[in-house]
VTT domain-containing protein (Arabidopsis arenosa), 204 residues
Amino acid sequence: METFTHPVCGILVFASVSLFPVILIPTTPSMWVAGITFGYFYGLLLTLPAVAIGVSLPYFISYLFLNKIQGWLERYPDQAAMLRAAGGGSWFHQFRAVTLIRISPFPFPLYNYCAVATRVKFGPYMAGSLVGMAPEIFVAIYTGILIRALVDASTAEQEGLSILQIVLNILGFVATVVTTVLITKYAKRQLEVMKKEKEALLLQ
């Protein structure tokens, strides 16, 4: 924030969140910067469109490497079975499956490239990605806000925050993380159920 102006920070955050997924670089630190610099509301307004671009570019690029991606899925049948559970079915089935995959611990930059190979349509892929990644985005931006609050509280030049404000910020962050962990565990269980249902259908 001392090196760049707000507009430049915004451009850097937007560009990194949009483009880093293409080269498999995590975007969480950029979302921290969004929270630190712009706060919750403007941080979300900045990162959500960038996330949409970041998951779209690999989806379309993967058409160029479809055969190689399908070969990779063949070499890892356990992971592939979970991802293929998202393919086929109705729009809502694909949306639900993509949402669960995004919430689960599966690395989302890899799934950006695998979705096409599992025959997931772009509409449910995009909608499910935004919904499924929302908890991670909220936690990342909240982390940035908490970092900013703690820095302000420890800076002699600032009035600082009261002990109550610091405690409330930390409790809010912990509650957000705990909720995200619980949702992730639920998503993992539901993916296992979908995987078994898919395998049962193939055996019939």
In short: The CA atoms of residues 152 and 190 lie 42 Å apart. The radius of gyration is 19 Å. The mean pLDDT is 80. The longest helix spans residues 163-203.
